[in-house]
Design a protein that fits this description.
The chain is mainly α and about 200 residues long. It is built from 8 helices and no strands.
């Protein structure tokens, strides 16, 4: 249960207002969304929310927000749904939304990895041109979807897990030679003022 036996005695608006103002301690236990909706519906009916004045409606809303842990905006949406339909139900349904359809398959990503390996991973623009020519000029049907890929999406596919699994690119640390000091005799070419200085670092 979302609410324990203490809240059952909150029947009048004075008791509810005392709770909303924090003058009365009431313990609540969290429950699932279905129990919360049932509790909200019962409370709206018990306090006759539809026939209350604006001030008393605010008290009921503050009580329900505190009791359920929902935000004020969520509670106002539930109350609006109750007033329009007479019930409160989860409108989210079973699915959490339909994901975008995948245009490029795992085979396409593997094909891109093979092209990058063969051409030493060129820029996105050059790679896109290679993919287009493979389909339009050379007639390779495997490149039908990749032939119309955008420059930016080449980099998106390169960052995918399927691409990294197919082609791991390892580069060794490149040594760089920096001339810290140069030791040689001066070449004044007959001009005065040249001095040879040897220093030790």
């Amino acid at each position: 249960m979302i609410v324990d036996i203490q809240t059952r005695r909150l029947r009048t608006m004075e008791q509810l207002r005392a709770f909303a103002e924090g003058n009365e301690a009431v313990d609540f236990r969290p429950g699932d969304r279905g129990e919360a909706y049932g509790f909200v519906r019962d409370a709206l009916v018990r306090f006759g929310y539809g026939g209350l004045g604006k001030r008393d409606k605010g008290v009921v809303l503050r009580f329900l927000v505190a009791a359920t842990g929902m935000s004020r905006q969520q509670m106002e949406r539930l109350v609006r749904q109750w007033r329009e339909t007479g019930s409160i139900r989860d409108r989210r349904g079973g699915s959490r939304g339909r994901p975008f359809a995948r245009k490029y398959t795992a085979a396409d990503i593997r094909l891109l990895a093979e092209v990058d390996e063969a051409f030493d991973q060129m820029s996105g623009l050059a790679t896109r041109e290679i993919l287009r020519r493979q389909f339009e000029v050379f007639g390779d049907a495997r490149f039908e979807r990749l032939a119309r890929i955008s420059n930016g999406h080449v980099y998106n596919l390169r960052g995918s897990a399927a691409y990294r699994a197919k082609r791991a690119l390892w580069t060794k640390t490149r040594a760089s030679s920096v001339a810290i000091g140069l030791r040689q005799a001066p070449k004044p070419k007959g001009r005065p003022g040249f001095v040879r200085v040897d220093t030790v670092h």
